[in-house]
Records
---
Amino acid sequence: MPTMIQSVVRPEKVHEVMKALLDAGFPAVTKMDVFGRGKQRGLKVGEITYDELPKEQLMVVVQDGDKELVVETILKAARTGTKGTFGDGKIFVSMVEETWTVSSGTKDA
Amino acid sequence: MKQIIAIIRMNKMNATKQALIEAGFPAFTVRKVVGRGKGIVDFGVIQGAQAEAPEAIARLRDDGPMLMPSRMMTVAVADESVSKLIEAVMRANRTGNGGDGKIFVLPIEDAVRVRTGERGTAAVN
């Protein structure tokens, strides 16, 4: 059963995360620009509140057995400093029932 | 109900739209994304750039497969329409080369049509 792992990470960290995924053996990634806010209700700098912060969303679909490894890889690469800080992002895991490859027209196992 | 996410080539968008309308799926959402696949990239296409900026190309190689711009199409359909939709998308997009794209099928719990408040399959039909 394949699993979709969607992660929202800092734009300045996305390069590192994608490199880490490649090194861990997961080359296939889809990336998109997104904007959003988290539990801290955005970012407050003096009088100004930014409640739509730019982030990058990465979408990876892997086999169920690789789920932990991919999540660990993203966590390690996306964290700021050793402890991490607010705004480092989120990872969402959802189930995928089928995946198909268009070029060959076959359903992946 | 299923959510179908198809990642396809940029230049196949019009053909795919046409194919979906013919197959009876007028409703979908599309956005521009970039991504990479299993890593089969032909670096011949950037050989022209190579002559002018070798260090840029070296960096590209260093970072692994290139990110290709593509379209991500999201459609919500009833269970029985899934195979028909997959067929239509694949027929419109298949060139037989790597990079044609992927189709993912995900389960969705519920759907609501905002205008009428209809729930479930009625909202996507």
---
Amino acid sequence: MEWGAVNLPGMGTSTKVMAAGTAVKPMTVEAAEEIAAQDFASIVESHRPQIFRFLLASLRDVDLAETLTQECFLKAHRNWKHFRGDSSAMTWLMRIAINLQKDHWRNRRLQFWRHTQANAIGVDEASEWLPNGERNAEQQILAREQVAQVWKAVEGLSERQRTVFLLRYVEDRELREIAQATGLSEGTVKAHLSRALARVRAELRGTR
Amino acid sequence: MSLRDKLAGEIDDPMVAGALENFKASVDAWSEAAYSRPRTVVSSARHNWRLAASWALGCMLAAGSLAGGLYERHQRQDLARKTAMKAVQQKVALERAALEKPVKPTIVTKRQPTAVKRAASENEDLLATVDSDVSRQVPAAMEPLAQMMVDHGTN
């Protein structure tokens, strides 16, 4: 079996087409677009909850997280033909989400914290959420306290540190992926993570 | 590799690792609940209906105000026309009446000098009566003084 590359006009990508022997079976533009649309639909289905979770943790505002998630996928859909697969689709989507979030912070600063300040929930309310695991009441209280302390530490992080921290410890992304999504070098990502962890540690030990 | 193992390998402090694990679990639970919550979608049909109703009401009010204004203006014009017609008719009637009736010449006569004199004397009498009435009405406290004046006058 052999794979041949076909350049599709309007798609901006080179699609590999399986062919018998040395002959390359041509693919119509419509067929390629249909496959691309199906691909995108499956990507939305599989990555949407993760993008939403990341934005929710970053903003602590459900409505805003939903809005930015929608914007993220709208932007991704518009630029889907430019996606060349240099990184994974998830990393690419995360990069869009981070940029949208940055724009939002910038606009929020211009708007004097008007919108988000009114809708974002507090640290205590955010820490109320815990899975119904096999824990007794004491463990639940302890876990809640710890979660509240981590939220408090996260609140005190810079925008970049927070993004890196959430990508690493909530989204479980590798350093390389974080570097790709944020546009930082791996060394810088490590430095941000180290500072964020130091802050969390200090908050948990009550030294801050 | 689970998150716990990963964190254990990366973070040497078990308390921090446990807190981060709880944090992730909390964010996951919150996100899942928020993601799967029923969303309230505002029906565009209802929204359109409301918009149309408000537009219709606004148009009706505007049309009503315009019609009311025009009616009022028409009424005023009509009233002014009627008043003007009435005034013209009255004028015409008066002119006709004046033409139909012979005009009596008004003769201005000079008053007789005797009549003038009589009227003047009548006025003087009247004023004298009033003066005497007023002078008689003297307060009780002034009575002795008035009496003296009378006595003085008579003497």
---
Amino acid sequence: MTASDTAFCVHCGQPADGGADHPACHNPRTALEPPRYCTFCARRLVVQVSPLGWTAKCSRHGETASG
Amino acid sequence: MTAVPDTDVLAYAREHVLENGVGLGEAEVLEVLRLPDDRLPDLLALAHDVRMRWCGPEVEVEGIISLKTGGCPEDCHFCSQSGRFPTPVRSAWLDIPNLVKAARQTAETGATEFCIVAAVRGPDKRLLAQVREGVKAIREDGNDIQIACSLGMLTQEQVDELVEMGVHRYNHNLETARSHFPSVVTSHTWEERADTLRMVAEAGMEVCCGGIIGMGETVEQRAEFAVQLAELSPHEVPMNFLIPQPGTPYEHYEIVEGKDALRTVAAFRLAMPRTMLRFAGGRELTLGDLGAEQGMLGGINAIIVGNYLTNLGRPASADLEMLDELKMPIKALSDSL
């Protein structure tokens, strides 16, 4: 998959043309949120936040983690 | 309540709180919360003096971790982990290796506290077994960080079991004033929470009890809450500011205004001169970087480092650098034991 495959906003799960960052969801609150929805399929992610990072797992598309 | 003239409340606090270490009563806290913005610098300076006089310059640093996320049966209206609201948070259990890793990373920041949290009404046998295994594994990793827990409402047997595991502090927030609680939570009562706190204190564990500012409470109820917390003589009071979580009944609540947040921090300090006041969730949204620093100079003497349970926080390094710049030493583990 490539970035061009992304179709859904990671914050609200709604369609977002052109990437994972739905412009309408850019706000100070979402800046403090890990992703909640898979950007490829909009499934809700299983998210684990730890003091220094986070992981977010989609049952179909696997796990992503904070840098 | 006997009101103190608002022009005098800081002078009154200077004499009673700063000099004698006696916390303000409800009427005086209310006067403080009603001080105009132009008195805020004086208020923060006094709260800082009180903190330095009765607590000292050290700052206790803590990391928190969610052992069991989401799917909670309770209906706390602020909480994205309630299973009753259509929030995006999915249920998850943390495994022991990742719990140990999080504790190790927390200790490496210089933190002396690690709080294990679960989104539950109260712990069942499975959860307590997981906590027991986790505490044991953290110790076997060579990590002597102090371990606290927040697992909801407890029975006496569960309190005793946590003491026996070596859990030294228990967090159970009353969340808000007793008079406001029924509009925030309907699935259990303020009194049920207070019962757990009483058992925790009687068992010799340190009591950590705070709440969330900005859940529709009046300024009078903030004063009420400060005094109700003071009556518990808690070791620690975590102060959260509401993060309006999508899908919860409070999704569209306004974020607490920064000056109100700082005024509340200072008022709580004047109500509880000797208690550890911890900056917890929501400070990034409410106060930003500059406000966090003002809070540290306005009565706060403890922080949660890094991320929270479901939300992200400031980078740990940013807070540690801030403390360094403020010349506030991190409380050492040897001071805690």
---
Amino acid sequence: MAALAPDVVPRGAGIDLGGRGIPHAAAFDAGPTRFRRFFRSLELWLPVGILTFIVLVCFLWPVIHTIPAAINGNLLDANLPLFTHSSLYGNHILGTDTLGNDVMSEVLYGGRTSMEVGLGVAVIGFGIGGTLGVIAGYMGGVLEAIVMRILDMFLAFPALVIAITIVTYLGQSELHVIWAIAFFAIPAYARLARATTLRIKDQTFIVASRLSGASDKRILFRHIAPNVAPQLLTFSFLGIGVYIIVEATLSFLGYGLPSNIPSWGKMIANGQIFLSTTPQLVLVPSACLFILIISLNLTSDALRARWGAQ
Amino acid sequence: MGSTVSTETETTTDDFPPSGVATQVPLLQVRDLKVRFTQNGRTVRAVDGVNYSLQSGKTLAIIGESGSGKTVSSRAIMGLLPATASVSGSAKFEGVELLGMSDKELRTRRGPDFAMVFQDPARSLNPTMRIGTQITEAIRSHFEVSRAEAKKQAITLLQMVRLPSAETRFSEYPHQLSGGMRQRVMIAIALSCHPKLLIADEATTALDVTTQAQIMELLEDLQSELNMALILISHDMGLAASFTDEVVVMYAGRVVEQAPTRTLFSNVRMPYTKVLLDAIPRLENKSHTLLPVVQGRPPDLTALPPGCSFGPRCPYVQEDCRETEPPLEEHEPNHIWACFHPVIEGSSAK
Amino acid sequence: MTVTADQSTARGLQAGTPLLEAKHLVQEFVVRDRGGVKGGVVHAVSDVSFEVRAGETLGVVGETGSGKSTVARSVLAAPKPKSGEVLFKGTDLVKLKRRDLLELRREMQMVYQDPYGSLDPKWQVADIIEEPLVAYKRGNSSERKQRVGEVMDLVGLDPSVFSSRKPRQLSGGQCQRVAIARALTLSPELIVCDEAVSSLDVLIQAQVLNLFEHLRQELQLSYLFIAHDLALVKQVSDRVAVMYLGQFAEVGPSDKIYLQPFHPYTAALLGSIPSPDPNAAKVSTRGTISGEPPSPINPPSGCRFRTRCPRAQDICATEQPLLRELEPDHSVACHFPLAGESVTITMNGAPSD
């Protein structure tokens, strides 16, 4: 570490003077004005609120309010326009698709699936990839080399081909789609985790911990992991959007979810040809996906801004 | 730089025709310099009224700790503050007002008129550019010289700052040099256009003490050769005592004591200065000496206490100190301080 | 302040007997060029021997590249030196297995230069201070909490205010206090301070130095105090070792080093320190030191200081001077020491032969 100036000022406190090495003011207790604070918290809570709303609606609405089925629709009901009321099946707020499935219902159930896939991949990536990366980075040496080279091999294959192969081999199901996409998420998480670990592991507080008697296990769990996790978390938020779109691609190619499970990606992919006749088939799931991904990105940015201040 | 500036108009004897003639006319005259930063609705009075005059060939020390405003005031003069700064007051270089000057004109002046050396050479030098190029770039941006001529001048400069093997070093990158050598390169760059004023902002703090001594001696030699004025910004009182003609002590953005060096160090009046002096480990102290300490931390510039800013920590504080801010006045010939209860020789702390 | 059981047994050592003995320490680092190719070897510490006696403070002063921080790390075997012995109360740390080393480390702790860097930014102060106790599995939860409170009181931090704060909510001086508190939790006998106050403002530095002194008296601590500021080191220490480019140039009592330095480098250091006393002599390097510090990758042959020394002769290049005792407890490694001369700190120019 470069030699520090003899003057060290309370960090993270006071005014940021454009990073020109101008000394900061000492800590002040009261924060920014109320308006600024509100605005700043809005930066985080607005996207989080939207995310929560989407999650709640997709998962809870079908439970509390009976809606027509998303699958196995009656062909007789095909291509109904918006706001059609069917005495048999209830309200088709968004009409139906070519197979008679209620679009609204498809959007809700599809949302569930998309989010499950996105979240599933993120969790696997975080858990497996993160762990591998941290261990590799901390242990170093031969272990690190082997782990990273194996993960690099994963990345060397053309992604889509591998995903298609996996799904074909294992069979089409939501879980298998998750694993297929996770195949590529794991190395990405591992790289990030390893890089962050390398940055942290030689810092003084790790040395201090070791000299205080902490075992490697303790250091990994109590010191390294909590300092690596925020990075992985913000990475996850960005990643989820990507995973959902990858799943959409797979479904479009016919190697994704089985035909009886809807997802936004699938709706978009399959509904393209009907864009002129029943645009809502594409527009609604697109809009939902758009809002979801933007909210995820905004949340990620807001979190990074908050944690980056440390 | 985009900073908002309001300048005073003075029609006193302070106006004089700009000239290169160094006489009794001050090279740099700073009057009531104030710098304010506003962010998130909070205002920081980083510098709150600084006055000094500097003659050619003389050295001024600005002493203070972090947050005292010593760096900000110098950067204000050179126009190096970010846009969030609002600067008021006057800083006249050879009679020409610098505050409010356009960026373009300041750039032509930075180099031939005044130059600044910063603390951390690792960050002030471009790591991807060779040393020699960084010097010649500075030269050629101010003077119309050929590349060969600039190179010759640069090597002469490197030799002047006593960089060993200047010819070889010319083509090297910063990372190939030690900290002391890099700092000398910084000085060479600053000197490349023969400035009339050099501002050294903690320029030797990160250096070994022997290197510091060598560089300070070098600066002294150069001063007498070039009749260059020097402003030494530091927290190191020993440095100020050894190398300067006049000392300005700052605390919380304000000047609290100002005097010619000998006067100040022989008759410290401001309690803050005394406290600072007492807190320095001395070679003469016996081992296990306990230093006289003051409690507390540097003040919060956004919420300064009423009365004297040093009051909460001052060992001599009394009631009136907490109520009114002591004015900065010349209480003794040539010796200015801002304190109701200054240290008189022989008196002990409360 | 309660004295824990640990303390009363540990203090059994007679004051003045060696607590820590380092013998012929050598530490080297390999410098790798780009692409991992082995470049040069940094001879950070070359055959250094010293001892820290019980109850005393040994200061080690040196400039950049002197290897003083490496000495501090080697003494704690973090990492272990390339060769040499480190005897703590008679047991050689270098030879110990990990488990035994851990046990011995309990009695030696370290305070680092960077106040913020040595504390985990995500942890609360109370947890940071408690960590050594948890790592060594001492006491139950309430006993640990009590110890943390004790130690925080010792360093002047109010537990009710500071326990739940995080490092970024503290000032530099407060962070250092936390670091010191953490070092004290296990009641060590020796504390190694690696530039522990160099990053602090002058006034805060004075506070922390006084804290070190108070703790020394109250807890009968021994210190190994590393710094680059000679005035600072001298004031804090009983004995001072001056280090240059991986070797000790001179070791002796603080006052002697100042009043009668034997090694030309020590004299140069003393002459370079500007004094705030207006009547003191002007800082000068003329005649005391010249040139640039050489690289620790290719140190000069023989005496490493010879390239900058005004007194260097041929023998200095061929034969390396060993540390020898010129006066009781005052040793120097030089062929032409300044012994027996009234050292001229007050005059400009070389000390007279």
